[in-house]
Every structure is written in structure tokens, then in C-alpha cells.
Amino acid sequence: RKEVEQDPGPFNVPEGATVAFNCTYSNSASQSFFWYRQDCRKEPKLLMSVYSSGNEDGRFTAQLNRASQYISLLIRDSKLSDSATYLCVVRSNDYKLSFGAGTTVTVRA
Amino acid sequence: DTGVSQNPRHKITKRGQNVTFRCDPISEHNRLYWYRQTLGQGPEFLTYFQNEAQLEKSRLLSDRFSAERPKGSFSTLEIQRTEQGDSAMYLCASSPGASGGDTQYFGPGTRLTVL
Fold this sequence. Notes:
The structure holds two protein chains of two kinds. Chain A is mostly beta strands. Chain A contains no helices and eleven strands. In chain A, 33% of the residues are buried. By secondary structure, chain B is mostly beta strands. Chain B is built from no helices and eleven strands. In chain B, strand 4 and strand 5 (44-50) form a beta hairpin. Chain B is globular and about 45 Å long. The chains are: A mainly beta, B mainly beta. The A-B interface holds A 4, 8, 42-46, 87, 89, 94-102 and B 31, 33, 35, 40-45, 48, 55-56, 91, 95, 98, 102-109.
């Protein structure tokens, strides 16, 4: 079983729509949680950290459910520039990141 | 540009050849990581340095792979006797360490193609 599992999508949404997706992780001792964004043939870039209380960054809202071991990301008012692969990331110890395979989002005009 | 840099950006080699990649981390970041990413997958952890000390190697890192960070600054990843299965994007990341929030910042990667 993979440490982090994500719905690969693709999620194909019109501009202005809301899109949400989540991932699950297997290690209950995981310490920190993140969403990274990766554009085609580019490196992953940190989108936001995910906190137990839930957190927002502009149009992006992340939630963590430790009991069920899942993490979610919601994008409101989608822009064309939001088209990317979103990687769910879990840190299980002091330094090692475990990545999901990514969820592809395509926002169409 | 003060981000993580990697060279070369692309490498095409024949099976059986040796290749070496270089990573220059963000200045003063004492942690450095190597990951490998294949098409349709997320990055997979390969190895981790705290300054010049290599503190963990994934079981993905066979004996043909070796990584160094001799002075605690740049790092090299060498693959000996390359195989077609080594074709992937090799990503380097650096972070400031636990006291600095420890966000990992990735370089642009080296795309390896083994023919």
C-alpha cells in the first residue's frame, strides 16, 4: 500500500468553478502535511501547509482529518492559471517527505 | 537567482555509461535531499544530507548510486552502469533545518534518458 494515495483525476472544470479533492495517508504518526503544486515538466512548489484546524490562503482551503487520515484541498473561483498537478505530501519524520502521485486539475475558459 | 540549481538540466546516455548530476542548494541551507520522479508519479525520496553527513539512503538507491556533499554545500549524484529503468527526473531540494521551518525547496531537476 502506498503511503499517500490520491485520486489522479483529471478534474476538468470551467473558470470560476469550485473544485475539491483529497488524499489519504497510511502512517498515523505523520507529523506535517502539505500541498505542493507541479506544473508540467517543472519542479514541485509549496502551495500551502495543512494544519489540524484547517487553513485558507486566498482561494485555497486545506483541511486535515487526523482521525480518518485524509487531507483535502478546495479551490474556489478557479482560474486558468490553477491548471496543474496538485501533490499531497506527508512528512513522517524530521525530514522525509512522502508524495502522492498527484491530482491533475484543468481549468477551461 | 538564489533558488536551488541543478546541472545538467537534461542528460541522454547509453545503457552502461556513468552519469553525474550536480545540485547547488539555497545558500545557508544545511539540509539537502535527492528525489526521483517518473512519469505519472510523485517524487520518491532517495537520500538526505545534514551538512556533509549523509544520514539516510532509501532502499531505492542501489549500489550503483552514490551521492556526496563533500563540503556541506553542493552535492553530486552519480549513477554507474546506467540501466533503462534509471530514466527519470532527478530532483534536488534543500531546506534550512528544523529551526527555520524546514520547507523543502526544489530545483528544476535533471531529466535522465537512458537509451
